[in-house]
Amino acid sequence: MGCHSIRKAIGGAVTAAFVALLLPGTALAERPLTYGEVLEGAIANNPTVGRADLTRDAAEAAVMGANGVFDPALRLNGNYGRSQSRGFFQGFPFKSNSTSWDIGAGLTQTAPTGTTISAQTTLDRNLSTFTSEFGGLATTETQQDFYTSNANITISQQLLRGLTLSYNMQTVTRAQDSLDIAELTLERTRQEVLGQAASAYWTWVYQDRVATLAKESVDVAAEAARVGTLRVESGDLAPVERTRLQAAVIQAQQNLLDARIAAQQASDAVLLLIGEEPGQAILPATSVDDVLLLELDSERAVEVAMSQNLDIAVAAAQVERARADQRLAKHGQLPTLSATAAAGIGSQQSTAAEAVGGLFGDESFPFVNIGGVFEVPLGNRAARAESMRSGVEVLQRELDLEETTRRVRSEVLVQVTRLEAAQRKVDLAEFQVRLAQETLDAEEALNEAGRAIQKDVLEARQERDRLTSESAKARTDWRIAQVDLLRLQGQLSGTDGMF
User: Fold this and answer.
1) Based on the structure, what is the number of domains in the chain?
2) C-alpha span between 67 and 167 (Å, rounded)
3) Residue 412: inside a domain
4) DSSP states along 21-56
5) What is the tens place of the pLDDT at every residue in 273-294?
């Protein structure tokens, strides 16, 4: 076998070995994934969204718990006791044995107005036996057995601290504010995850496109090497051209290997974002499509972001909560003054039935009690310190809001510039691809006519392939820039990912 045949066999074996490395022995069925499916999967399965959703649920439960302070309370009570005592009455000793029991039921309700209302009824029995000794001359025994019933209503009203609804409702208000912030944070998390999923999807589409272009380059390079080998054997080309063609095949195969690794990494990133195991065989089912020429108004884009951006919304909600806490802290510096009024009726009879029935008869005895309590800590340092702390908190939250607003405005302006630049890059890249294709066509025609060497054709083809990849990259950059702008404006959704 001649040296020429040996080189040909070695070249064919090397090419076949690389192709065997690049192509799996058993083709796996690739599951197509659309852009909308990835976004919906990210919202439904992404663990970051799941944690934010659980935080919202916990805040919702806290609101229900905070309202529980105004739930009425039912109280049932009962007591039984026995006692003995000894003493002197008008100089003569005596001893007593007492047995007593009582039962009662009450209902208490606290209102947001600082009013506490309590209704209670009781029934008790006292059985006492008194034994007296009169100087050893005589012993007497006296027994008392009576039932007492009561029914009363007590009203207590705060007159200074605790008089306002906002102060009494502060636990509920804070819980509701926390729920509002949790819901805003959940929506912000959804926007962030949607943005990540959208960017990952378009990056995957790009890497898959690069892998497809690399595979086409391998096929074209292999065909060119085959034709070149025939032309060398027929004497139309110098042997060095065959070497260049074979080197181009090897380089194309290396590029394909790199492109497939990058595409696999991009697809794994998509799978992780939608909560699935990496390594699955998936295929992007949505193409980048044509770039829409958008008329961008930077000030209008900023205006939309200022009204809909979730970072700003969360910061603004925290400012409002801090201001509300400051108002409550100022009210909390007041002293406590409460007025209490109680009224009811009682009855005392020899039997339980008569005692209860006596509440509604002429023999019942009414009673009224009015009182008040005034209390103020001397110095009141705790309340004054809380008021100062809440004032500092307001200033901090206002600074956070100002910083967030400036940052979002700057990011929106940057994204508008990026989107405008991406649109121009897409046009330029497509124009360069057309020029590169025309150059390649011309070089191939000259080569066929014997007026150009194969090296020029290879360089023209490599340049066309490079510019085609750059065109796909420009389209991807445009899509990602659009996604980032919509995320800043709070307009991404889980259905189409656009508006």
Assistant:
1) 2
2) 14
3) yes
4) HHS-SSPPPPEEE-HHHHHHHHHHH-HHHHHHHHHH
5) 998 999 999 999 888 765 555 6
Distance CA 251, CA 459 (A): 12
Structure tokens at 163: 């008089």
Residues 203 and 285 in one domain: yes
Its pTM surpasses 0.90: no
- Residues 477 and 459: their CA atoms lie apart, in Å, by 27
Residue 242 belongs to domain with CATH number:
1.20.1600.10
pLDDT digits (tens, 9 = 90+) for 311-337: 999 999 999 999 999 999 999 999 999
Domain membership of residue 169 (yes or no) is no
Is 168 domain-assigned?
no
Question: Is residue 415 located within the same domain as residue 275?
Answer: yes
Domain of 137, in residue numbers: 77-110+115-161+337-375
Residues 407 and 345 in one domain: no
Asked if residue 223 and residue 259 are part of one domain, the reply reads yes
Which residue do the tokens 């884009």 mark?
A: 301
**Are the CB atoms for 172 and 63 separated by under 8 Å?**
yes
The reply to whether 291 and 215 lie within a common domain is yes
State the Cα–Cα distance between residues 361 and 123, nearest whole angstrom. 16
**Torsion of the alpha carbons at 195, 44, 50 and 313, rounded to the nearest 10:** 40
- Per the listing, tokens 């690399």 go with 214
Q: What are phi and psi of 128, to 5 degrees?
A: -130, 140
Does residue 430 form part of some domain?
yes
CA 274, 279, 285, 289 dihedral sign is positive
Contacts of 150 (CB under 8 A, 6+ apart): 120, 121, 122, 344, 345, 346, 347
Does 409 share its domain with 479? yes
Retrieve residue 134's tokens.
């009169």
CA distance 100 to 146: 10
Rg for the chain (alpha carbons), in Å? Answer: 44
Instruction: With H, G, I as helix, E, B as strand and everything else as coil, classify residue 445.
Output: helix
Contacts of 116 (CB under 8 A, 6+ apart): 108, 109, 110, 154, 155, 156, 157
For residues 81 and 51, membership in a common domain is answered with no
SS3 260: helix
Residue 79: in which H helix or E strand, if any?
strand 73-89
433 shares a domain with 291: yes
Tell me how many degrees the CA angle 155-158-162 measures, rounded to the nearest 5. 135
| 165-174, 294-303, 383-392, range with the lowest pLDDT | 294-303
